[in-house]
């Protein structure tokens, strides 16, 4: 079994063999693979999918699926580089998180949103993660949006305009 020492520490105490990995329950396997990817990205910035596959020993489908999940939850950033029709995705850990706050839905206590500042070194953004808790109070990121500081005011203005048209009907 793999355990993280702290929530923000991606170091793994044990690397599992393919047989051990297949023996895990789906949720444990998913958590292990995501932590493994985060561990690799914490030591190496700007890796391609192929490089991550090589370092983990996992299939393209597995790594790709977990990277998509990590990107959608704003834990990993993806930048595409290339010209013409050929683009290569480069992955790196998202920046440090600061000023975290939580908003809970009034209708459904299991649904909540985390708001936080994401510092990526060269720019800051506000990130909003939609999370949901199961009956055991384990939370899972359902989706996220990141808005650069430079765009916040115009984004809020547009959101207010849009919601007035849609919600107030």
UniProtKB/TrEMBL annotation:
Organism this protein belongs to: Marine Group I thaumarchaeote SCGC AAA799-N04
Annotated InterPro entries: ArsR-like_HTH, WH-like_DNA-bd_sf, WH_DNA-bd_sf
A Pfam family hit: HTH_24
Superkingdom of source: Archaea
Listed name of the protein: Integrase catalytic subunit protein
């Amino acid at each position: 079994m793999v355990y993280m020492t702290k929530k923000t520490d991606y170091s793994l105490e044990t690397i599992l063999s393919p047989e051990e990995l297949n023996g895990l329950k789906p949720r444990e396997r998913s958590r292990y693979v995501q932590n493994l990817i985060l561990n690799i990205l914490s030591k190496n910035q700007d890796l391609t999918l192929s490089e991550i596959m090589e370092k983990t020993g996992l299939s393209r489908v597995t790594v790709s699926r977990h990277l998509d999940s990590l990107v959608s939850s704003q834990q990993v950033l993806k930048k595409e580089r290339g010209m013409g029709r050929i683009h290569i995705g480069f992955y790196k850990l998202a920046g440090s998180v600061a000023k975290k706050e939580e908003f809970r839905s009034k209708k459904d206590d299991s649904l909540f949103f985390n708001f936080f500042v994401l510092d990526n070194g060269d720019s800051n953004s506000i990130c909003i993660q939609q999370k949901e808790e199961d009956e055991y109070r384990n939370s899972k990121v359902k989706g996220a949006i990141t808005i650069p500081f430079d765009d916040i005011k115009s984004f809020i203005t547009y959101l207010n305009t849009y919601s007035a048209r849609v919600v107030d009907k």
